[in-house]
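Posting for a labmate who doesn't have an account.
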Amino acid sequence: MDKNNLNRRQLLAAASAGTLAAVSRSIPAYGNISNKGRKLAILGGEPVRKNKSWPGWPYWDQSIIDSVVKTTKSRIWCRIQSKSGTVPTFEKKFAQMMGTKFCVATGSGTQALHTCVEALGIGAGDEVITSPYTDPGTIASILVARALPVLADLDRQSYQLDPDDVEKRITENTKAIMPVHMMGQPCDMGRIMEIAKKHNLKVIEDACQAHLAEYQGSKLGTIGDLGCFSFQSSKTIACGEGGGIIGNDEQLMDKCYTVHNHGTSRAGRTEVAGPKYRMNEFEAAVLLGQLDGVQERFSRRNQNAAYLTSKLKDIPGIVSQKLYEGTASGSFYIYAMTYRKEYFNGADRSKFLKAISAEGVSLSPYIRQGLHKEPWIEHILNSKVYKKMFSKKRLTRYRDQIPCPNCDKVCQEMAMIWASGPLLGKKEDMDGIANAILKVYENRDKLHLI
């Protein structure tokens, strides 16, 4: 089936919750298949998937082992020991893979983001607009620079930053936007870049989940001024921990290098304040050992995700993540969908998830609550440092702007598959996921018994 057609169908499926309400009896993607009458596994029936496992993650093979052994025996265990060690080699290969001129490897995605904030000269009294629906590392990268993370609300169907809300939150102190490509799918980067240009703002792409994903002909991480990635063990390219920064501006990337190297430049002069964020040679060895198969695994995830979306698109109350126009591919670090309980006889999401789990398919919520509801906000608003850097009027307004109702809805409604491993499965595995959801839907009148 044509991949572009599937992408269009994904967009349609995600945007059409109203249309789905009318599809209550006929599920076209399943023909005459029906689970009506088949007892839910959680109530004593046979599970859809029984004694079946998913592809394991993180990925390893002999090439990775050989690469680590080679590094061990070389006694070159730190990047500053050799210009041709595993870290500099990985930086060159990753930059080439991503289509950029430069890469600086770090110890984590959070370190990569903070390095970029510092390299762009963002600090005390400045503001950076980002998402409340992300790992705490995103805002940590701003807070440790003593800047203010301003949280904009989401588009409810894509789980990404709403560009209109971003623009509303720009002040005279705003210096950058940090869009987060959640689940490994692109934000609406066309609008975000328009807003950044209009207001003369920098853009740091948090592409920590979005390895190799493409939007309007460009890989994520190459659209803004700088792009950041994580290689933490759950990511689709992984080494336990680790991160990377990519870009094409040589002067700016040299600043990133200097910042991440405790303020010491490539020339060996200590020039600025900076942390020690260097990736070690063993992490890079793990990464180098897997690069040859990265593209094939990326393609397989996209094919399986497209197929799964085509199977789910007609099940009422299940809406796959909306993809913006121009999205050619995603990393599918996570395969996400919205659960609308009104289509399941009002059953709470927790009951749905328990029923699905009993069928042999592990779906779960992702982020329990947005960062706008976490205690760090009161911590900084009451801190002496932030009271010195920002006026009482600004901090009061900041508190008033905390609510992000769309983010709250996403946290309450979203269900996901940790996809790095499972989306490397076979077509029959995708059928198993879809059939389990269909079975629960067709027995939704029994969910109250759970």
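Reply:
Got it, the structure tokens are right above this. The longest strand covers residues 334-339.
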